[in-house]
Amino acid sequence: ILGDNKRWQSPVPYLLYSSLDMNTKGIILRAFDQFRLKTCMDFQPRDSEMYYLTIEKRTGCYSYVGRTFPNGQVVSIGQNCGIIAIVEHELLHALGFNHEQSRYDRDEYVTIVNENILEGYQNNFNKYSENDTTTLGTPYDYYSVMHYSKDAFTNGNGSTIITKQPEFQEVIGQRLEMSSNDVLKLNRMYSCSKYASVAFKESCSFSNSGLCGMSRCSRSAEKGSENGWERVTQAAGGPYTNHSNLGTNGTVFFMHARAASGQEGDTAWLDSREITPSRKCGVQCLQFYHYHSGNESDQFNIWVSHVSHDYIEKKTSLQGIKCGQTSYWQLLHVSLNATKTFQVEFEVRKGAGPSTGGVSIDDINLSETECPHHTWQIRDFENVAKNTDTWLFSPRHYSRDGYAYQLMVVLRSSYIGVYARLLSGKYDDQLQWPCPWRQITFLLMDQNPNIQLRMSKQNSISTDPEQIDYSESNSFTLLE
């Protein structure tokens, strides 16, 4: 929508009303984090501002478009609206977005079938003029979280929206996350630079960006035989391609440190650029893929160095990894918790045993967000999913306060079901039972190497001691 008077100042003040249940409140806070990660827009609890959002549970999911009312502007997250994509949808309305199929150029891309629209809901399909709205120079986006689905508000006689390109008929109405064009439009609307973000710090796949400002160094006991980090397309002993383009043709790169030659103790370092935290929370998450084709005695260590006045003030080991040979890229998350300027260092140290490979890394992302507590990487997922009624069980995990639990995945032809159950654990006699007010979020991670461009599927469930029947709730999780 046009008009600077419709724009908010960031951070956008908000109030969460008590009418919202605990699970929905947690989902709203996660939606705020997605805006922080992907855009320059932030949200903060209201102090005394005149214009602010009141996020509450009313009938349905709705919001006004743009900054409209002082003294509290309603965003309704009603029954069955507690899904992160729906929350993002309503917040984008509040920030100034109309529906994608309301664009003035929509007739070039979709056909609105008026006779199939439920009586009284025709105005939901209005088209807005160029005098009132702008496309911000972006193409029509079938993937937009602001697009209606093909059967939105149908009276039962057929689809209400038909895409001019048939291959997008099942795409419109996706409710995963904001699309890359949603993010681009929001950043343009609020005059943010490309990839500007409150919480995003770095993304590097090594294929198009070289070393992404990283520096290399190595040390060897035998002069002239240093095995430092190299930018390669494949490595002896594996991997034979990078992570983000598995199985594709073309030139793709990753970083590899050889351990097949040299002496015990030979070391290779790869240092990030200096990074200064911009949020007060002091929380960062380092995410990357790792492939170990060396000997189990070869060490892979991660360090964080606090930098002050061009010298390293303190160097701390974050995570030491000793593992045998692997045959696939493994996803790792490492919490940093830095409070001042720092560098991340990837170190490979050759062990005593013979080696035919080394250590590789790819698809690095660094953000000022909390790391997931646990990651379950299911190999060969597409082939496993072909077997109807396949049940998969994770190892026993522990929450940060000591509860033991297990994840379960069921694969069927029409959906993927994800479940969690509590298990007996070693801290049971020290814990509060029946484990009230804990939220677990399942996220099926999009494989895009850039964390800002991912559209993952996620749902959340909370243990509510006041709720006995979940049959009328969106709290149980089936990821369709």
Automatic annotation (TrEMBL):
Catalytic residue positions: E90
Pfam families: Astacin, MAM, MATH_2
Entry GO terms, CC: membrane
Name of protein: Metalloendopeptidase
InterPro entries recorded: ConA-like_dom_sf, MAM_dom, MATH/TRAF_dom, MetalloPept_cat_dom_sf, Peptidase_M12A, Peptidase_Metallo, TRAF-like
Domain MAM: 202-373
Cofactor(s) the protein requires to work: Zn(2+)
Annotated coiled-coil segments of the chain: none
GO biological process: proteolysis
